[in-house]
Input
Amino acid sequence: MTESQSGSDRSASASPILRLLRRLIDVTPAELPALGWCWLYIFSVLASYYILRPIRDQMGVAGGVSNLPWLFTGTLIVMLVLNVPFSALVKLLPRRQFISLSYRFFAVTILAFGAALHWASPEQTIWVGRFFFIWISVFNLFVVSIFWSMVVDIFSSEQGKRLFGFIAAGATLGAIVGSSVTASLAQLVPPALLWKFCRPSASVNCSGRCR
Output
C-alpha cells in the first residue's frame, strides 16, 4: 500500500459517516462509495414505485373490480413475453449500457402514460388505466431485478453477507417515503383531478371520494 492510499484510508476512516455506519454494519472505507450509491439507488427505485402503486391500484379498480383477475393474468403474460428480449439484451449489451437504457425506457413509458391519461376521453381512460395497471406491475419487477443483478456483480459473497442487509433497509425506507409522499400529495390534488380518475366507472365508489 502506498503512502497516498494509506492517507486516503485514514481520512476516510475519520469520516463521521463512516464512523456512524461502523456502529451498524461492518464496512470498510473502500466499500463506502459503492455502498452509498447502491443504498440511494434502491431507495429511489422503491420510492418511485410506492408513489405510482396507489395510482395503479385506483386505475385498476376504476375499470371494474370484476376485471382484476384478468389484469393479473395480463401482467403474467406481459412479464413472460418481455423476459425474452430482456434476457437477450442482458447478454448483448455491457452492464452499464443495459442499465442506463433500461431505466430510460421505463422513464419514457411512465411519461407516455401520463400524457395518455391527460388527453384521453373518459372511455379511453378506462383502457389506459388497465394497461397502466399491468405496466406498473411489470415496471416494479424489472427495475428491482436489474438493481439486484447489478449489486450481485459489484459485491462479493463475503461483502454481500455484511452489506446487503443495509442496502435492503434502503429499499424499506424508500417504500415508506414513497407512500408518505403519495399520502401527502393526495391532500393537495384538486378534486377535479380526482374526479377525472374516478369517473370512468360509475359503479365504483372510489372509497367515497367521488360521491
In short: The two ends are 71 Å apart (CA to CA). Residues 36-201 form one domain. Confidence is low (pLDDT under 50) at residues 1-14, 197-211.
